[in-house]
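User: Hello, beginner here. Can you help me understand these amino acid letters and fold codes? It all follows right here:
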Amino acid sequence: MDVLSDVITVARTGRPRSAYVRWHAPWGRRFAAVPGSAGFQVVLEGSCWLLTRDGTPLRLDAGDVLFLPHGSGHTLADHPEAEVDTPACDPDDPGLTDSYASDTVDPLGRSGPVTVVLCGAYRLDPAQAHPLLLTLPEVIHLPADPTRHPELHAAVRLLAAEVSAPRLGTGTTVPALLDTLLMYILRIWLARQPQADRATGWAAALNDPALTAALHAIHRAPAEPWTVAKLAAEAGLSRAAFARRFSALTGQPPLAYLTWWRMTTAARLLRTTEAPLRAIATQVGYTSEFAFANAFKRAHGQAPGTYRRKN
């Protein structure tokens, strides 16, 4: 798997939620802040406004995609000066038993202009979140552009069709489409980042062919006995140039990232498989179960066996 695929596979946990809603003006809906989650809003028909406590209202038109990678609280409304005092929608509300919902909202019994919104949220595991996700802005707005990003809009159409009319297989299809939607959002956002020589951060690292080659090698084979020299060879750089560029862009040395990825992979295997500790240790590059247990405890604050029992 490549780095971006792993970012999504490792981070998502729990049960995703999505809803297809038709709003009749006048309307407004607050969405609660949910730390440790990510949310999205897609305008399928009509238009609306994103209202935040500190920001200028942002107009959203049909086809616009809004992604909130840190679960920030926000409000959608039919007017930029709307005052919304209804209870906030919270995807963690225990009263919400349906993962996928479809509804028509007309709180005042009127039939004003219609806005159709596809919204959703899914839980991320902060302890396993890739550094890329942690550095994303609070809000990512992708204006409608079906000619440039047809795959994104195809995923939106498929997701809307599944959520608006659940049927056999929807429980499997929707999580896969949510992952696909996130993949396309991140791919487009990464492609839009500055390519200047002085750019830093994970966006710059994943747009750097040399570093991407080394990162793919780590993710493809975490058990390999990687050294800085071997990773530099994957990148096609000298050892010193590779170490310097990797640290400058990602904020950590190559072997520190290697250890982080090994421990993140080990945690996922402990949660999702019944493989013995010795086998997991081997899969992430440790020939000694004792050495693996010590490394895991340093990274996660508890022994592998304890982590498995609690997760």
